[in-house]
Write a structure and sequence with these properties.
The structure holds two protein chains of two kinds.
Chain A (H helix, E strand, L loop, with lengths): L3 E12 L2 E12 L3 E6 L5 H8 L7 E6 L2 E3 L4 H6 L2 E4 L11 H6 L5 E4 L3 E4 L1 H14 L15 H14 L4 E5 L7 H16 L3 E6 L2 H7 L2 E6 L2 E7 L5 H9 L17 E11 L5 E11 L3 E5 L6 H9 L6 E6 L2 E2 L5 H7 L1 E4 L3 H5 L6 H5 L10 E2 L2 E2 L1 H14 L17 H13 L5 E5 L7 H16 L3 E6 L2 H7 L2 E6 L2 E7 L5 H8 L6
Parallel strand pairs in A: 3-10, 3-11, 6-9, 9-10, 15-22, 15-23, 18-21, 21-22
Antiparallel strand pairs in A: 1-2, 1-4, 4-5, 7-8, 11-12, 13-14, 13-16, 16-17, 19-20, 23-24
Chain B lengths: L1 H14 L4 H23 L4 H11 L14 H26 L8 H17 L5 H30 L3 H24 L17 E7 L2 E6 L1 H18 L1 H11 L1 H7 L3 H27 L11 H11 L4 H25 L5 H14 L1 H26 L5 H21 L1
Antiparallel strand pairs in B: 1-2
Helix pairs in contact in B: 1-15, 1-16, 2-14, 2-15, 3-13, 4-8, 4-11, 4-12, 4-13, 5-6, 5-7, 5-11, 5-12, 6-11, 8-9, 8-13, 9-10, 12-13, 12-14, 13-14, 15-16
Classes of the chains: A alpha/beta, B mainly alpha.
């Protein structure tokens, strides 16, 4: 008999309107990297949340080291040596690295012999040692708010190790990282495996699984499709199983057919809340039928630039013209009406009302206009027909039709709803900021096709993305932003991804 | 087995999309009445007699005996006199609350409105047909301006409305207190001099059905306002935008809504309703202002709004319920000999249970889900010859589920 450290048998979990897990059974061997692959909403995170004690399964049982367990909270799971790094980190921003790691299991000492207090010195030493052992470089005394995302992730990993976790669950760990950081993380995971830890990796990126995982379980719409040996399976096979159909990796991009200039940005500068100039003297133009992609490492001003064009932030200088009309000072709604659609980076925080239903969210650009409103009164039958139409045409999957609350929908379907809403405006300029972030192959493929269709119909597209692959695949023209300045604007065919990568690091001449 | 089906049915009523808005508050009310009964039993009193006396005190059930010229109708109209400002104040609260703002300054807005209306119109000697509308108008303007000011502070200087309204409550209380003491004090009672019958919003001592009644104009305004607020939120573009700002200001901005203006306007509307509540209270039911004492109604209104699930129609029922306890407490106290503060205690318990509404619904939901699982397990087991009990169970369960599913659609 093999040594299974984790067994989940016949797990079923329901949420209102959906079955998140339907009779799923997995067995994880000690010391392996076990990947859970599936589209968004396939039930990977739910399954692992149950293993980590955040939910209780409706049916089925969980065995740890052969013994059945019932976790009532994640504390129970921690007591059974299970640790989890969530997709959204759970750290206290104004605490130091060490304080975050020891939080809840603080080493204590007695001040003046009787006053109990936290022994931070000891914590710092222990963490420095731990970080050396596993090659996870952190400075225990740095505050979380001062360190980059990749280091925060290391803090999360150390948090598990500090609690002596043997089973480490990673929920989409690479979603927030740059290519180099991903490399590094995969090395860390490999190191953890070598030191005997068992790792469960939730992901939808097949290349990572090929690189690191031993075995891979594929979930599709809440059901377990198959458990594969990674070495003997091709990426294409995995992709097909995960999406439930044949996947086409190469979108067919027709040659560009440029029309008149749609957007003209001249000498644009933007200051942030601290009066710091985040965008400096940026000029570019986008023609109809052109995809202008802005490449850059996160935080170099690309999001602010897109926000400024859409009217979400004020400009400090320069002009923005849409089809010759100066829109620099126009409020957001007038810009929308002038012909700008915007798919924002933060889809849940900015793009939708999570507490409103799908139908209301789909009508956000139209609700105040005829025929959606007459004399200030909302026409709900109009909302209904419009929503049903969009749900059908854009294949938005939702439990209860247009009445589905956005909160209960998967990220991919939320994004579908946003894109449907914005594209339906038939704007002259559509701004996409990180349109595929955190989405699975099926959804990405779909969104890329939509972007290309828009372009072929003569729409000007401003694409901001942190994924270099995405930019190389879609862009007609590439602008590389570094430190708030457009270092290079060139035809996409004139640049290799290597060149773009160099400009992204601030090198002036490639 | 029977018990099981009963609880299943209860769960499906509590969890259904259509009924949970009503059934959850009713459950909260029942639970608080049970809790209150236990307390009354501990005090050695019969809870049924107590609840009956609350109803008697509010004119819903006849008392044993009445004083000369008064009757059940008298009590009922007095009840309406209290109900009107309570309902208006709670509507004022939800108009702001739905837009994500917490107007805790209703008491102050009420007082300012009542004071200004009394001072400007109450002593003017104008005819009733002119005086009453002017009192209402001044009340709304005073409350509205105060509300708008709070909104402006938030919009322009990012001052949280809870802080500014609490501060304003003090300022209004002391400022009006100063003017009442120096200019408008009644030499005998030291409160504000009463306003003329022509300007008062309650017609005093009307003969109805052979008894004297004080008929409040405010109750008509309050009910009308409840439906107006409902219409505003459910049907209008403006209400949609207010809800949007309340739920997610960032997305509201992205949608093109002018968030700052909506904040100012929603607090202004909230203040206007509070002002209306103020004049129906101070120039109707009460007819005087005790200096430097803010009425507790402005805070009770928050409880009413929460019990009514921030819905205007819910507020009508919630304010009726809470007013029954508050208004009937005097009579209850005199018949039972229990301190009338028990009314506030019951209000508090009600609030506590109504705050648990979401949890009740969650429990009901869990109950249905487990039933569903058991049914699935039973079906698997049914492939082997099934025991009679488990065979009888599934159709019942699936029935309950499908009906609740239909309601959801």
């Amino acid at each position: 008999m093999e040594d299974y450290i984790v067994e989940m048998r016949h797990i079923t979990k329901r949420f209102p309107g959906i079955v998140a897990n339907d009779d799923v059974s997995i067995q994880v061997k000690r010391g392996e990297v076990y990947a859970l692959l599936g589209e968004n909403g396939a039930g990977k995170s739910t399954l692992m949340s149950m293993l980590f004690g955040m939910y209780q399964p409706d049916m089925g049982e969980i065995l740890i080291q052969g013994k059945p367990v019932r976790f009532r909270s994640s504390n129970d799971a921690t007591a059974h040596s299970i640790g989890m790094v969530h997709q959204h980190f759970k750290l206290v921003d104004n605490y130091t690295v060490a304080e975050n790691i020891v939080l809840g299991v603080e080493p204590m000492k007695k001040l003046l012999g009787f006053l109990p207090c936290v022994d931070l010195g000891k914590a710092n030493r222990e963490i420095a040692e731990l970080s050396k052992t596993y090659g996870l470089e952190v400075n225990p005394t740095d505050k979380i708010e001062d360190i980059p995302v990749s280091v925060r992730q290391r803090v999360e990993i150390l948090k598990m190790l500090y609690r002596k976790a043997e089973i480490l669950i990673f929920d989409e760990p690479t979603a927030v990282l740059t290519p180099q950081e991903i490399e590094f993380l995969l090395k860390i995971i490999d190191g953890l495996r070598k030191s005997g830890k068992t790792i469960i990796l939730i992901t939808h990126k097949i290349e990572e699984i090929k690189k690191i995982a031993d075995r891979c379980a594929i979930l599709y719409r809440g059901r377990l499709v198959r458990v594969l040996d990674v070495k003997s399976t091709t990426a294409q096979e995995m992709a097909n199983l995960m999406v439930g159909r044949e996947v086409d990796f190469n979108p067919h991009k027709s040659p560009a057919n440029y029309r008149d200039t749609v957007l003209e940005v001249e000498h644009l500068s933007i200051r942030n809340a601290n009066k710091f100039e985040v965008v400096r003297d940026v000029s570019f133009r986008i023609r109809g039928g052109e995809i202008f992609a802005i490449a850059g490492v996160a935080g170099n001003g690309q999001v602010e630039l897109a926000d400024a064009v859409a009217g979400m932030v004020k400009t400090a200088g320069g002009t923005i013209r849409l089809c010759g009309q100066d829109i620099t000072a126009l409020p957001i709604r007038e810009r929308t009406e002038a012909g700008i659609s915007y798919i924002p980076e933060d889809r849940q925080g900015t793009g939708v009302f999570l507490d409103f239903n799908l139908g209301d969210n789909l009508a956000l650009r139209k609700y105040y206009r005829e025929p959606f409103a007459k004399k200030g009164i909302l026409q709900f039958n109009q909302f209904e027909t419009y929503a049903n139409d969009l749900i059908a045409r854009y294949d938005i999957r939702c439990g209860q039709g247009r009445k589905t609350s956005l909160r209960s929908m998967s990220g991919g379907n939320q994004q579908k709803a946003i894109i449907a809403r914005e594209i339906e405006e038939h704007a002259k300029l559509v701004i996409f900021v990180q349109p595929t972030r955190g989405l699975d192959i099926g959804a990405i493929e779909n969104i890329h096709r939509q972007i290309l269709t828009e372009r072929d119909q003569g729409t000007a597209i401003l694409l901001v993305s942190l994924e270099l692959d995405e930019i190389m695949e879609l862009a007609d023209t590439i602008g590389v932003i570094y430190n708030g300045q457009l270092l290079k604007i060139a035809d996409a065919s004139a640049l290799t991804s290597h060149d773009v990568g160099k400009y992204m690091m601030g090198v002036k001449e490639a | 087995m029977k018990r099981e089906n009963g609880s299943h049915r209860l769960a499906s009523i509590l969890d259904s999309e259509k009924w949970s808005g009503v059934s959850i508050p009713i459950l909260s009310i029942v639970l608080s009445l049970v809790t209150a009964s236990v307390m009354l039993l501990i005090l050695g009193k019969n809870p049924l007699v107590a609840f009956l006396s609350f109803l008697q005190g509010s004119g819903f059930v006849p008392k044993g005996s009445y004083g000369g010229g008064s009757g059940m109708l008298t009590d009922f109209f007095t009840f309406l006199n209290v109900l009107a400002p309570m309902l208006l104040a709670s509507l004022g609260f939800i108009v702001a609350f739905r837009a994500g703002l917490f107007n805790i300054g209703i008491s102050g807005q009420m007082m300012a409105a009542g004071f200004l209306a009394t001072a400007l119109i109450g002593y003017s000697g104008l005819d009733a047909w002119l005086a009453k509308p002017l009192v209402i108008l001044i009340g709304m303007i005073a409350g509205g301006l105060l509300g708008a000011f709070v909104g402006f502070l938030k919009y322009r200087f990012n001052i949280h409305e809870v802080v500014s309204t609490i501060m304003l409550n003090y300022i209004i209380s002391y400022l009006t207190g100063f003017f009442i003491n120096t200019k408008f004090a009644d030499s005998l009672t030291r409160s504000m001099k009463i306003c003329s019958p022509a300007s008062r919003l309650t017609w005093m001592n009307l003969q109805i059905g052979g008894v004297k009644c004080n008929v409040p104009l405010g109750i008509v305004l309050a009910i009308a306002a409840a439906f107006a607020v409902k219409f505003l939120f459910d049907k209008t573009v403006f209400g949609f935008e207010l809800r949007a700002v309340g739920r997610n200001p960032v997305c509201a901005k992205y949608t093109g809504i002018k968030v700052g203006r909506r904040i100012v306007v929603s607090l202004m509307l909230s203040g206007m309703l509070a002002g209306l509540a103020g004049v129906t209270y101070y120039c109707g039911y009460y007819n005087t202002i005790v200096p430097k004492s803010l009425c507790s109604m402005g805070y009770d209104a928050i409880a009413v709004a929460l019990l009514g699930n921030s819905s205007p129609i819910g507020c009508i029922f919630a304010s009726i319920l809470i007013t029954i306890f508050q208004n009937g407490s005097n009579y209850m106290s005199s018949t039972l000999g229990v301190a009338k503060e028990i009314a506030s205690l019951i209000t508090g318990i009600l609030l506590l249970f109504s705050a648990c509404g979401g949890y009740f619904r969650y429990l009901a939901h869990r109950r249905l889900e487990t039933a569903l699982d058991r049914e699935a397990a039973a079906q698997k087991a049914a492939q082997a010859p099934a025991a009679e009990t488990s065979a009888a169970q599934p159709p019942e369960a699936s029935d309950g589920r499908t009906s609740s599913e239909k309601e959801e659609q």
